[in-house]
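Regression test attached.
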Amino acid sequence: MKSGPLPVVIIGAGPVGLAAAAHLLGRGAEPLVLEAGPAVARNIRQWSHVGMFTPWRYCIDRAAEQLLRAAGWTPPPADDVPTGGELVARYLEPLAALLSPHIRLNARVTAVTRRNADKVRTSGREDLPFVLRVVGPGGKLDRIEARAVIDASGTWGSPNPAGADGLPAPGEAEAADRIVSGIPDVLGADRARYAGKTVTVAGSGHSAINVLIELGTLRETEPATRIVWLMRKERVEAAFGGEAADALPERGALGSRARRLVESGAAEVLTPFRIAEIAREGSHLRIIGDHGGHPASLVTNEMIVATGFRPDLSISREIRLSLDPWLESAAALGPLIDPNLHSCGTVRPHGARELAHPERDYFIAGMKSYGRAPTFLLATGHEQVRSIAAALMGDHEAASRVELELPETGVCNAILTPLSAAAACCAPVPAPTTAASGCCTPATPQGVCCPPKQALPVGAPCCGSSAPAPEPVVIASSCCTGPSAGKAAAAACCAVPETV
Ligand SMILES: Cc1cc2nc3c(=O)[nH]c(=O)nc-3n(C[C@H](O)[C@H](O)[C@H](O)COP(=O)(O)OP(=O)(O)OC[C@H]3O[C@@H](n4cnc5c(N)ncnc54)[C@H](O)[C@@H]3O)c2cc1C
């Protein structure tokens, strides 16, 4: 790399972008952080109400900590677990204040290229500076040159759609006013939107579970709130993760709370459910899809889509990237993080070597470096930028050293403890039951799929139609009408009328 007066430009002032700046400063380089938002950590501010699952000890970068301590900062207790908002207020804002001469806010990068060279030109390419197109306040266009670029712009801005095939389902865009992607503040700012409504949550990761737990809390004071959980996974247990086996207890606890929500019947689960279409019906939405191989649909007031994120690679269209074909991470990183093969606990720390692209001195770091893989941890991102900063400064020994020990985690090693029989409406039923014994006993699934059956009054008609049964949501699901003998009894209880 040619040294010169040009800065190393970092795209995004999230925790990883700011950590990159701290490492570069520590090595005597000149970083410039370009942040699209009016303040740092714009993405985390959107989930500031959400509790993190890693304690402070795994949230703070070492170079950043050194800078902060030198300025008199006291770190929060290492084992306390912050919310997103606390991470911003107690760590990222003080850090940004120290780094402020190196941060430009309201600066959205729209494209990166090499000066006077499109992607095809090879000759002399590596000696050309990078050029970044930047949109500032009022749409003002700027052009910034850099000797190296670290793209730490995250993936929060490009959520996955609800459609099962990776594309927005037909009607999804038209229903945008009833659909929120991510983690709305169900107990705070967004409470009125969800209280007393039928709310359908799509997704099975931690974001979905966070939303479900908050909806469960909302339901305690707003009992008319109905929670329906759709996921593509074959079995809901796979969403609960490592639970007690997770070395990150907060993350394990999330899975356990989700299990309780399901087993108590507070959340009704339809799995596997693949969303094919979303249709507007007045002020409601009809979600149409495939439930366990059978056509199904349901009506809902609101939908929350928490199906993960994907990188927006449009800014690097003129950059020579080498990407994993399906994860869209750096190619060499793909096999290390592939969620088809790896649990989170087996993702090794990695650095500049694994994150390199054919375009020399261009790196994608942080959440975005994992592409579509959902297993990123901040601590890994801090190790990435430590290594990248060393590589950019020619310290190849430090760049290839591993300085991180990640906590063991069983979060992806789902322990498939089956749900209680009452909740397992859609699971194969071990032994056929007769309608008489199956339908009218407390052990029988009743009503919509999966809420545990409450004891019926003696003499109540089959399926408790005269009892105050929960208002059904599922309208055409064949969850409980499958051909297996074991499901036959439940079928009688699950043919329910359509309603929200
Ligand atoms: C709800 C939730 C909880 C999480 N909890 C944990 C946890 O407990 N522990 C853990 O280790 N990890 C956790 N993660 C994962 C990960 O650590 C976080 O997502 C983290 O915020 C990623 O940091 P980042 O800096 O890579 O990206 P981000 O925090 O997303 O920051 C990216 C920044 O880039 C800016 N930006 C985007 N596009 C542009 C552009 N074109 N030009 C300029 N700026 C741009 C954004 O405004 C933003 O400020 C969690 C993630 C989520 C979503």
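Expected vs. actual: identical. The longest helix spans residues 84-99.
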